[in-house]
Design a protein that fits this description.
Layout lengths: L8 H10 L5 E6 L2 E6 L4 E4 L8 H7 L5 E16 L6 E6 L9 H5 L11 E15 L12 E16 L2 H5 L12 H8 L3 H13 L3 E7 L2 E6 L1
Parallel strand pairs: 3-4, 4-6
Antiparallel strand pairs: 1-2, 2-3, 4-5, 6-7, 8-9
Helix pairs in contact: 5-6
């Protein structure tokens, strides 16, 4: 459960973006804190790992309509600040850019829920600012630099997923049938890892099936 006291700036800003007049913010539903309790649905904003909300989501869906919001960053500006003063030391644009297939990096954790009749998954494509501090406590990959906050610059676009067609519509129109993970990676212009997570999720959701092999590559087709 995410409480007001420990949420990041990005989460708080997205909650404000989705808030409507009359919403209950951080309402208690069945012992769970909910980001936004609206008249006809619950809104949960998840900026991180979907594993942490799997049980919560399964319980809520038994009795409530749920909108699960996941941000994907189209542009990230990285701001480095001094650990002692907070002074801005540098500001640069990250070369990394997210895409819709990043959604499956998280959906792989809840594939059995994505077609639940009470669940809508919505991607918010955003621009954000990532605040970093060279405090020696961060990841070794960043040489000890910590990510101290993420702030919302703007929401560029939103895309909702509710039906099988919504998810299958992400497969490229000219994708061969049957197709391998290699084919999907090539036609969608994504990494093989993303392609694998996509086919795994869609198979577990009952939308794809394995129909054979070509060499070492498993072939998939729409059910």
């Amino acid at each position: 459960m995410i409480g007001i006291q420990n949420e990041g700036s990005l989460h708080a800003a997205l909650k404000e973006f989705y808030r409507e007049p009359g919403d209950i913010v951080e309402g208690d539903v069945g012992g769970y804190f909910i980001d936004l309790v609206q008249k006809n649905r619950l809104v949960e904003i998840q900026t991180g790992n979907f594993s942490s909300i799997k049980r919560k989501l399964s319980t809520l869906l038994e009795t409530h309509e749920v909108l699960l919001v996941y941000p994907i960053t189209l542009r990230r500006d990285i701001v480095r600040i001094a650990p002692e003063t907070g002074e801005i030391l540098s500001n640069r644009k990250s070369p990394k850019k997210g895409d819709i297939y990043d959604l499956f990096v998280e959906l792989i954790r809840i594939p059995e829920l994505i077609l639940h009749p009470r669940l809508t998954v919505e991607v918010a494509f955003i621009k954000e600012r990532e605040i970093r501090c060279d405090d020696g406590r961060g990841s070794w990959r960043r040489r000890g630099v910590s990510i101290v906050d993420r702030t919302l610059v703007g929401v560029v676009e939103r895309q909702a997923f509710f039906t099988a067609s919504d998810y299958l519509g992400l497969l490229p129109e000219d994708l061969p049938c049957p197709f391998s993970n290699r084919d999907l990676a090539q036609w969608a212009k994504v990494s093989r890892a993303k392609a694998q997570k996509t086919t795994y999720t869609l198979k577990k959701a009952g939308l794809l099936e394995e129909v054979g092999k070509k060499g070492n590559e498993i072939l998939h087709a729409v059910r």
